[in-house]
């Protein structure tokens, strides 16, 4: 082969050699070790470079594919491991400038022409150069090449977005990083400024804008990783800051912006650099570097960035004016600053959004810095800044953009800078941002709410809220097209007022109230007659007055008397001068006025009437002087026998007219009239004469009116939503508001409604419930309420069961609906159905609601209906019923059953309880048509039996046994289930089928338990059940060669579950009676059940043997069967004659469980059943195999399960109690050698080599095994073995913790269990661990845990465990504490520092993690108290503990709750300090820390010490 490569250089340069051969020769020369050339790598690299340079300089003609293969060859060399190894070994490989130039030229070509040929390979070559420091040094040496490459890469990404590949961003990231390193080393600021502004500013800003817009991350392109995009944006910002805003340029900026001459004579290099800001702005607004539409967005996006970079670079004391001077020129780059009026009008909403977002960011930069100081600006700078902000405010208010959230936010920032900026245009602000604003989008509503909130907060601080209300009233009362205005108090502004008004002093509230009242009386009321606009203004003013009156802070008995008198006068004036005239105007006959006018006036009048009545009641209750003040119409106390009026001074005849008017339309007036009646009900209930017949009749009348007022509207229904504000009630939202009013006051109304009204309420509630998730709506995004949401809240309210009448009405409405669907599915006539299932036709709500039984009582006076009811249900279950349901009917019943599930059925009266049980049994036994899918059928039956199980756990479960025997329930249930199982097309291990079996099993077990508890003829019932099961068609004793159609796998599992439940109930009974030899009946019943269960179990196990795993029901049943066998043989002198018939079965199941145990971990119930079987298997030594140790086999299987990484931690935690029981039996049966083997296996799992191999699960399994052993009682030689191995365990735990905590992030999954086991070892090792050194190893574990590296949830789990270990040492090992107090305090100090750090008040974010920190702080305080109890040991260290505490506390500001708990603890340590200790601390602490200590000691003396002195004196 050497001959092939002879003269390779000549052949590569030869013109006679074809380029195909040259490329092959060059490739093999590079990879072959047989080609020996001096400096071979450099020669081959130079050949490829020269060929490419010659081609691009037109000195060589090559085909396109040859050129591309030359690039690929170059790329292979640059990325080869061979080249990297050579460079790593110190060999020098030189790249020529010409190669970098042609790379840059290709990038420019790609950017301009969009050619994509070879783009990937050229980018790869560039990446290979830049990612190799030894090769990238040429770019560092030739800075202009780096600048050119970076510029061309940016333009390539910006101008050819369709040609962008993920590799381009990787190269761009490398190039930016390289240029930043060059920029940081550059000593010529002028050169850097020129490079950035001339070559990089425009492409970098365009690229940053496209990155922020998500150009390459949207629509699932996946061209750019989000993290890489963020890194590139950060690098661009660093490049711009390092080039355009260097510290050396500050004098030039000052000269340009502040007209200051440079005083530094050493700035020779900067003399010619004039107007740097002008240069940057000229490049920014320069036309032509991108599309005009894109450029506007780029400029808007970049202005805020440039200002932020300028402020970050130059803002320091004395430069505030300079930072402001940059703001107007940069703002001038935005279109909204210089366009003419007609051009501004032509801007679209999206254009305004872009511009206003930029302005918002500019203003936020000003607000977050200390740029604007009101006093400094006014005194030193002639209000320069203030005038600029005023121009901004005028521009924003002259061109309102209420559809753009940024417009509101800009105004909010200006208001927060100085309220005087917006105060001259306060009326325009209120009009355009609130009263006349058309705000629909939720984000815009939030922005509007924030602005109005800031406005009210500002004027509240200025104590000028009445003035603000005056401006609001002026805007509302302006001549305007009122019909086009939205409600004044929608959800956002109303929420602001609700938050602001309670904090105002009463005088300001009364001033605002008086202003609204005066405006109403002087500007609206005189011209209200027939004027529609005035009617709308009256409604707006009424809403505003309602908000002020209702949400202002109420007076009380301590309120000043002048304020009370003024409130009394204002209330009287409101009633006399406003409410009554409006009501009179409403009742006056006016045939010529339009109906909408009357409706608006009525809404206004009734809203104010309702508001006045509500406020008058509240003031009368909370403020005694208010009641004693005389009033013109109000406050006159009624006669003791009279009932409250709707409103004082309004005649009953007038209310009749008002009621007739309100009934004409669904409006705010009708809603307020309902509120008035509700208020009268409350006032009636407050009177002492509420028990009178007259009061009771009035309450029922008012309740009926409230409910009947909206009956027609609720019948129609609506899909609209309501924001909860009175002012937004309309014809569309009235049904929601009315239903909300009724539901919110059900506790008052329900007691005074007749049965028909209760039935109506139940009907509405059931009809308006959402039937699907889609109807419920996105609750997170939409704060409004709908009919469905209100009804759903009632259904799940804990108050519903307390309202017995409504609860019973709703329950019976649901059951009647279910019965109605059943009757609709009847194939024959209703007479036959009424005869067979009479309970379906029981519809007397009144009887059931009052708890009267409709069933004959059992006894001599009545006829016992048990046999008849059971036979009817059994006939239904067998399929003899005339009822058949189809798919749609089944779906309807399922929805009703979901409602029934939400009701609390555990405390039903006996008749209701029996009715529900009979109905559900009827539903479960109904014949289902062919349109019912198997999955729907299974879901339906599962719901029925889950509800039946819930009823059986209820308080009156025994009432069912008055109409049916337990054996009847058992037979009815299984008969219907055997019939239905033929329809289920599911596998025996399908999760839904397994869940159904569990539900059925739970239901079957409950009546059997009741049977034993109540002693209701258990032998008779159990005998009947066994007889039914043995005679079932599913019996395994079917004739050979025949197969019943019922013998399906699912049916066999149902039979197995029922027999298993029978064995589980009878087994404990036999155990309890084993001392009474005479009681043979339970034992015989259990023996018969075991025989049947064993036969069915063998069939199911044989079927499962053909599969991969034992079915879960088989596992559960075999454990129960083994337990029953053990119970039968106990006390009989042996187990052979009982266990031998099924010994082979148990041994086969044991073998399969051992092999399948890891696979069962995915199914927690199956795993629990398997572990339970193994536990019981240890109780039968006769079953143990002779050739192997059961202990060893089971231990190794359990260890495999625990060491399986696929098993979640939650599964292990769930089965730990079952594993504990298993290990207890294992230790009783196992020998000392078995126990020694287990300890060796555990120590191998704890070996630190597992951590080095990252085998976390092996370590966790060993830790879990230690925990299980510690929970088992063992003694003698086994205990001695365990505690001798304990030091090795503690040392291994320490090493494992250190290794786990070295990794970042820390693995809390290992650290937590290790700490639990360590604490248990220390607690149980009290007296057993003799060497104090072994206990001291625990401190090493605690010191290895990095509490500061944990996230809040992990912190809350690890901290208590660390505390638990320390507490175990303190309490259980006093001898160790005598010598290890410094180590103990070192660990405890880490806990103190940790809670101080976590309990500090954060600058940003909420205190959502505070409850976790408080729990940990309580543990610290408790540990302080334990140390204080050991005064002799800790007294010497007490001053050092106090010093450490105050040094840590001095660094942060703690939450008050955290600080209080820590102080309570440290006070106990101060109790241990003597006076010299206090003097020592005062003298030795640093000045800042000393102040903290003085404050701490002062509080200690004032509060803690004085309190304890008082307690001691009291004790004496």
Which secondary structure elements does this structure contain, and how are they paired or packed?
Blueprint: H1 8-13, H2 19-31, H3 40-56, H4 64-79, H5 81-88, H6 97-113, H7 119-130, H8 133-141, H9 143-159, H10 166-185, H11 189-212, H12 226-244, H13 250-258, H14 276-285, H15 292-314, H16 320-332, H17 341-346, H18 349-368, H19 374-380, H20 384-398, H21 405-417, H22 426-435, H23 442-461, H24 465-476, H25 491-500, H26 506-524, H27 532-551, H28 561-587, H29 595-622, H30 624-628, H31 652-662, H32 668-686, H33 693-709, H34 711-716, H35 734-744, H36 746-749, H37 755-768, H38 773-776, H39 787-795, H40 804-824, H41 830-836, H42 845-849, H43 866-877, E1 884-885, H44 887-902, H45 910-924, E2 927-928, H46 934-952, H47 966-981, H48 991-1014, H49 1018-1030, H50 1049-1072, H51 1081-1105, H52 1112-1129, H53 1136-1160, H54 1164-1177, H55 1190-1203, H56 1209-1229, H57 1232-1245, H58 1248-1252, H59 1256-1270, H60 1277-1302, H61 1308-1324, H62 1332-1344, H63 1352-1372, H64 1374-1398, H65 1410-1429, H66 1431-1434, H67 1438-1449, H68 1456-1470, H69 1475-1484, H70 1487-1515
What does this 3D model show about the protein?
- This protein is mainly α and 1516 residues long.
- It has 70 helices and 2 strands.
- The N and C termini lie far apart (110 Å).
- The model is unreliable at 1-5, 262-272, 632-641, 777-782, 844-864, 1033-1046 and 1133-1139 (pLDDT under 50).
């Amino acid at each position: 082969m050497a001959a092939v490569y002879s003269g390779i250089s000549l052949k590569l340069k030869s013109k006679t050699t074809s380029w195909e051969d040259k490329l092959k020769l060059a490739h093999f020369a590079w990879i072959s070790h047989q080609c020996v050339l001096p400096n071979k790598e450099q020669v081959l690299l130079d050949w490829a470079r020269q060929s490419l340079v010659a081609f691009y300089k037109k000195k060589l003609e090559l085909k396109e594919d040859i050129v591309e293969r030359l690039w690929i060859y170059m790329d292979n060399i640059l990325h080869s491991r061979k080249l990297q190894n050579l460079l790593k070994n110190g060999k020098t490989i030189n790249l020529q400038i010409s190669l970098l130039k042609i790379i840059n030229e290709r990038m420019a070509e790609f950017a301009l022409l969009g050619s994509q040929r070879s783009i990937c390979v050229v980018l790869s070559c560039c990446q290979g150069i830049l990612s190799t420091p030894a090769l990238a040094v040429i770019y560092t040496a030739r800075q202009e090449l780096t600048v050119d490459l970076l510029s061309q890469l940016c333009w390539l990404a910006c101008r050819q977005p369709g040609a962008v590949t993920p590799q381009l961003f990787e190269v761009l990231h490398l190039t930016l990083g390289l240029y930043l390193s060059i920029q940081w080393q550059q000593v010529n600021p002028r050169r850097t400024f020129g490079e950035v502004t001339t070559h990089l500013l425009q492409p970098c800003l365009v690229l940053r804008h496209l990155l922020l817009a998500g150009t390459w991350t949207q629509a699932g392109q996946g061209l750019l990783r989000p993290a890489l995009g963020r890194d590139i944006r950060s690098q661009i910002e660093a490049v711009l800051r390092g080039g355009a805003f260097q510290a050396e340029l500050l004098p030039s900026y000052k000269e340009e912006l502040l007209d200051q001459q440079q005083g530094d004579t050493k700035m020779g290099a900067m003399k010619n650099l004039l107007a740097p800001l002008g240069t940057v702005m000229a490049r920014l607004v320069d036309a032509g570097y991108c599309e005009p539409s894109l450029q506007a967005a780029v400029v808007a996006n970049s202005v805020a960035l440039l200002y932020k970079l300028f402020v970050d670079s130059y803002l320091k004391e004395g430069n505030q004016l300079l930072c402001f001077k940059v703001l107007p020129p940069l703002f001038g780059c935005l279109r909204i600053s210089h366009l003419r009026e007609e051009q501004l009008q032509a801007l679209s909403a999206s254009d305004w959004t872009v511009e206003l977002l930029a302005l918002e960011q500019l203003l936020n930069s000003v607000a977050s810095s200390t740029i604007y100081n009101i006093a400094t600006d006014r005194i030193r700078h002639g209000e320069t800044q203030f005038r600029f902000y005023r121009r901004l405010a005028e521009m924003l208010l002259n061109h309102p953009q209420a559809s753009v959230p940024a417009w509101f936010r800009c105004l909010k920032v200006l208001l927060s800078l100085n309220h005087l900026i917006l105060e001259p245009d306060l009326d325009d602000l209120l009009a355009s941002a609130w009263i006349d604003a058309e705000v629909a989008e939720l984000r815009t509503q939030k922005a509007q709410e924030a602005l109005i909130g800031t406005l009210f907060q500002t004027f509240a601080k200025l104590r000028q809220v009445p003035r603000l209300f005056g401006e609001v009233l002026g805007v509302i009362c302006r001549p305007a097209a009122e019909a086009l205005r939205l409600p004044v108090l929608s959800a956002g502004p109303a929420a602001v007022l609700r938050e602001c008004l309670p904090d105002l002093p009463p005088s300001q509230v009364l001033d605002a109230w008086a202003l609204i009242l005066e405006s109403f009386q002087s500007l609206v009321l005189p011209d209200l007659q027939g004027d529609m606009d005035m009617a709308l203004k009256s409604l707006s003013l009424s809403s505003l007055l309602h908000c002020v009156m209702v949400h202002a802070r109420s007076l009380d008995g301590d309120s000043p008397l002048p304020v009370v008198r003024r409130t009394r006068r204002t209330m009287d004036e409101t009633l006399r001068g406003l409410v009554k005239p409006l009501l009179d105007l409403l009742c006056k006959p006016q045939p010529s006025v339009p109906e909408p006018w009357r409706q608006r006036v009525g809404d206004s009048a009734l809203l104010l009437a309702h508001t006045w009545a509500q406020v008058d009641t509240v003031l009368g209750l909370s403020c005694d002087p208010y009641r004693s003040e005389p009033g013109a119409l109000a406050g006159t106390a009624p006669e003791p026998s009279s009932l409250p009026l709707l409103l004082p001074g309004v005649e009953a005849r007038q209310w009749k007219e008002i009621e007739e008017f309100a009934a004409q339309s669904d409006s705010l007036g009708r809603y307020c009239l309902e509120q008035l009646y509700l208020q009268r009900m409350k006032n009636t209930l407050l009177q002492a004469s509420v028990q009178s017949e007259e009061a009771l009749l009035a309450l029922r009348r008012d309740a009926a009116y409230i409910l009947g007022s909206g009956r027609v509207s609720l019948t129609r229904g609506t899909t609209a939503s309501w924001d909860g504000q009175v002012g937004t009630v309309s014809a569309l939202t009235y049904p929601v508001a009315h239903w909300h009013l009724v539901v919110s006051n059900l506790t008052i109304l329900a007691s005074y409604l007749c049965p028909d009204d209760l039935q109506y309420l139940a009907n509405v509630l059931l009809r308006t419930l959402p039937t699907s998730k889609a109807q419920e709506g996105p609750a997170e995004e939409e704060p409004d309420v709908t009919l469905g949401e209100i009804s759903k809240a009632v259904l799940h309210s804990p108050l519903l069961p307390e309202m017995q009448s409504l609860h019973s009405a709703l329950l019976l409405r649901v059951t009647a609906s279910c019965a109605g669907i059943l009757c609709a599915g009847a194939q024959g006539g209703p007479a036959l159905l009424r005869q067979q299932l009479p309970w379906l036709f029981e519809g007397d709500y009144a009887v059931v609601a009052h708890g009267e039984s409709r069933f004959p009582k059992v006894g001599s006076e009545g006829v016992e209906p048990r046999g008849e009811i059971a036979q009817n249900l059994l006939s239904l279950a067998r399929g003899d019923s005339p009822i058949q349901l189809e798919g749609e009917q089944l779906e309807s019943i399922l929805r009703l059953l979901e409602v029934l599930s939400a009701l609390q059925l555990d405390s039903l009266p006996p008749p209701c309880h029996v009715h529900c049980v009979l109905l559900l049994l009827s539903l479960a036994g109904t014949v289902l048509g062919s349109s019912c899918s198997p999955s729907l059928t299974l879901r339906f039956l599962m719901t029925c039996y889950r509800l039946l199980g819930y009823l059986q756990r209820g308080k009156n479960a025994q009432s069912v046994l008055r109409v049916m025997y337990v054996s009847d329930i058992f037979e009815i249930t299984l008969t219907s289930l055997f019939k239905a199982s033929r329809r289920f097309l599911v596998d025996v291990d399908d999760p839904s089928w397994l869940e159904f079996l569990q539900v059925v099993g739970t239901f079957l077990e409950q009546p059997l338990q009741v049977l034993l508890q109540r002693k209701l003829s258990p032998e008779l019932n159990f005998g009947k059940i066994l007889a039914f099961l043995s005679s079932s068609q599913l019996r395994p004793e079917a004739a050979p060669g025949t197969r019943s159609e019922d013998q399906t796998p699912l049916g066999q599992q149902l039979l197995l579950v029922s027999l298993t439940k029978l064995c589980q109930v009878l087994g404990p009974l036999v155990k309890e009676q084993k001392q009474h030899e005479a009681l043979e009946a339970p034992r015989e019943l259990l023996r018969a059940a075991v025989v049947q269960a064993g036969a069915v179990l063998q069939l199911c196990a044989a079927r499962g043997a053909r599969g991969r795993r034992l079915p879960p029901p088989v596992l559960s049943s075999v454990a129960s069967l083994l337990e029953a066998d053990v119970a039968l043989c106990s006390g009989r002198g042996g187990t052979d004659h009982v266990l031998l018939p099924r010994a082979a079965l148990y041994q086969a199941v044991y073998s399969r469980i051992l092999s399948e145990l890891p696979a069962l971990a995915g199914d927690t119930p199956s795993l629990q059943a398997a572990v339970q079987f193994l536990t019981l298997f240890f109780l039968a030594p006769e079953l143990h195999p002779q050739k192997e140790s059961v202990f060893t086999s089971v231990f190794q299987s359990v260890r495999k399960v625990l060491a399986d990484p696929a098993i979640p931690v939650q599964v292990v935690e769930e089965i730990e109690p079952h594993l504990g029981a298993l290990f207890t039996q294992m230790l009783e049966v196992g020998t000392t050698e078995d126990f020694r083997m287990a300890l060796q296996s555990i120590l191998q799992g704890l070996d630190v080599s597992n951590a080095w191999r990252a085998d976390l699960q092996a370590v966790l399994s060993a830790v879990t095994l230690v925990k299980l052993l510690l929970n088992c009682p063992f003694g003698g030689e086994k205990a001695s073995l365990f505690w001798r191995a304990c030091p090795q365990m503690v040392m291994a735990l320490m090493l494992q913790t250190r290794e786990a905590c070295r990794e970042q992030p820390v693995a809390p999954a290992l650290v937590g269990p290790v700490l639990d086991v360590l604490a248990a070892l220390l607690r149980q090792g009290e007296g057993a661990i003799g060497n104090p050194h072994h206990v001291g190893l625990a401190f090493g574990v605690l010191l290895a845990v990095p509490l500061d590296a944990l996230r809040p949830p992990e912190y809350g789990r690890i901290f208590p465990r660390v505390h638990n270990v320390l507490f175990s040492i303190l309490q259980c090992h006093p001898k160790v504490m005598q010598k290890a107090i410094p180590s103990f305090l070192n660990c405890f100090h880490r806990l103190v520092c940790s809670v101080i750090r976590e309990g500090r008040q954060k600058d940003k974010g909420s205190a959502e993690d505070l409850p976790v920190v408080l729990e940990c702080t309580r543990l610290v305080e408790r540990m302080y108290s334990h140390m204080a109890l050991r005064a002799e040991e800790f007294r010497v260290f007490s001053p050092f503990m106090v010093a450490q505490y105050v040094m840590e506390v001095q660094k942060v500001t703690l939450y008050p709750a955290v600080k209080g708990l820590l102080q309570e603890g440290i006070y106990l340590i101060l109790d241990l300090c003597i006076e010299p200790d206090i003097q020592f601390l005062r003298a030795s602490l640093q000045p800042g820390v000393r102040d903290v200590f003085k404050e701490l000691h002062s509080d200690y003396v004032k509060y803690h010490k004085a309190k304890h002195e008082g307690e001691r004196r009291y004790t004496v």
